[in-house]
Design goal:
By secondary structure, the chain is α/β, with parallel strands linked by helices. Helices cover about 50% and strands about 10% of the residues. It has a single domain, classed as Glycerol-3-phosphate (1)-acyltransferase (3-Layer(aba) Sandwich), CATH 3.40.1130. It is built from twelve helices and eight strands.
Length: about 325
């Protein structure tokens, strides 16, 4: 254990181990990716994709190893039982910090298939990792404002096609599709700007989640709803490397998905879109109350009532404007 090191030195050691771990596994990943690139055939993908996913799982296991080596974080986790590695999963979580991604990967690695995130298009330019995400078929989405989409409605169809292409690849091997439905990390400034009806969450956006459900719905039997809480406050990535995260609380629950969400026309059917948004709002309201309970806060009945009234369906969102791993 290296947790005895001074925090700054511990951070540099953790960062060094992260870089070495990433370069090692990415070298293997890129070598096998060249085969898939040279022979873009379905039988080849069926063989190569599990290998690439296994390499990514090795990278995550390496990250878990240096986390255990350098940190003394207490993990309070419940609801991780009953998963199978050979299934398809739709996973959703609240989003506060880049550390969320390490938390999710650490907990779900080799319990369920590799988590595949919807990413902002700009992240493809991140050194090494951008190419790795591309090799692993993470979908890159362009984020457009509602004003832009009103001027260019055809861009909504581009998002739909991008999601369909990604999900067609996911259908080849068991996959976990990961969505941060808030579309960006929670901050008090964003919370105030949105006038969010929730105490600890931003407003959820249904776009990419709904489209993925439609594209792969016959493979999902439920939504894996993950609630992440940092009792001492959401840490920055540097604080995480320093070992400042003393405790992480994670609650995992399975939520049934209404059958109509798996076959309907989300973009074209206004009533279906309202039902999806209402379902997601109700789920988010329960999550907000769960976070308050985990933090030992008193409930706010008036807020819950106003939240129900405030959840008015918005205009048809694009998948890209709705989701992303960062913001």
């Amino acid at each position: 254990m290296l947790a005895f090191l001074p925090p700054t030195l511990r951070a540099f050691v953790a960062l060094l181990l992260l870089v070495v771990n990433t370069l090692f596994w990415c070298t293997l990943l890129f070598a096998f990716s060249l085969v898939k690139l040279a022979l873009p055939l379905r039988p080849v993908r069926a063989v190569i994709d599990p290998v690439l996913n296994a390499i990514a799982s090795g990278w995550i296991a390496g990250n878990s190893a240096w986390m255990k080596l350098t940190q003394r974080t207490r993990w309070d986790v419940d609801g991780l039982d009953g998963f199978t590695y050979g299934g398809w999963y739709m996973v959703s979580a609240n989003h506060q910090t880049w550390v969320d991604i390490f938390v999710l990967q650490h907990l779900f690695n080799r319990r369920i298939p590799l988590l595949k995130f919807f990413l902002k298009q700009e992240l493809i330019y991140v050194p090494v990792m951008g190419l790795a995400w591309w090799a692993l078929d993470f979908p890159f989405m362009r984020r457009h404002s509602d004003q832009y989409l009103r001027r260019h409605p055809e861009k909504r169809l581009e998002d739909l096609e991008t999601t369909r292409r990604a999900c067609a690849k996911f259908a080849l091997v068991p996959t976990s599709v990961m969505n941060f439905v808030e579309g960006t990390r929670f901050t008090s400034e964003k919370h105030a700007a949105q006038r969010s009806p929730y105490r600890h969450l931003l407003k959820p956006k249904a776009g990419a989640l709904a489209l993925a459900l439609i594209a792969l719905g016959d493979r999902f039997d439920s939504l894996v709803d993950v609630t992440i809480v940092y009792p001492d406050g959401a840490p920055s990535f540097w604080q995480f490397l320093r070992g400042d995260v003393k405790r992480v609380v994670v609650h995992v629950a399975r939520e049934p998905i209404p059958a109509e969400f798996l076959t309907g026309d989300y973009l074209g059917d206004t009533r279906l879109r309202k039902r999806v948004q209402r379902w997601l709002h109700d789920l988010w309201q329960r999550k907000d109350e769960r976070i308050s309970a985990l933090l030992g806060e008193a409930p706010e009945p008036a807020r819950a009532a106003s939240a129900c009234g405030a959840a008015k369906p918005a205009t048809v969102p694009s998948a890209a404007s709705a989701e992303g791993s960062d913001g």
